[in-house]
Amino acid sequence: MTSPDDQDPNTDLLAQLQAQASIGAPLSQDDLLAQLNAPPEPDPLENVAYTGDLEGDAAAELDALAQGFRERTAREDERFRLATDSEYWVALCFKTRADKETFLRAARLLTLGDKYLDGHAAAHILGIPMPTDDPDETRKE
């Protein structure tokens, strides 16, 4: 039997990715890579200066933990806002499937899919700079 300490540290992330894949969440390779390379949650006790005074150190730890919870709450609030924002997509409608595929092929977008496309990947293919692109990030077509 293994203890939680023996568990693979990527188990939670792998479970999250499997859940997203199982419900059909459209994830690009860039999205998956970003999730896999995301920095871990910061350790709220990292900057606690221990003095040897048990009562003082315990109070400092509690303050640091409370601050950590507040910061995590703020990150989660922002994540929730972004996840539930419905004004980030656009739809195009054509008369026929053939028309749609002709458009996607001519725009060189068919490689991204034929229904749900990553907007940033499409912008990259079309040569359109996006305000949220990381200028240091290099993408491959």
Feature tags:
mainly alpha, single chain, 141 residues, 5 helices
How does this model look, in words?
This protein has helices at residues 11-22, 29-36, 54-84, 97-106, 119-126. The protein has 141 residues and is mainly α. Among the domains are: 52-87; 89-134, no CATH class. The chain is elongated and about 75 Å long. The protein starts with 10 loop residues before the first helix and ends in a 15-residue tail after the last helix.
Q: Can I get a quick summary?
A:
The chain has 141 residues and is mostly helical. It is built from 5 helices and no strands.
Rg (CA only): 22 Å
Average pLDDT, to the nearest integer?
81
| Intertermini distance | 46 Å
Low-confidence stretches: 135-141
Can you give the helix content as a percent range?
Answer: 40-55%
* Overall body shape: elongated
Strand content: under 5%
Largest sheet entry: none
Task: Give the topology, please.
Elements: H1 11-22, H2 29-36, H3 54-84, H4 97-106, H5 119-126
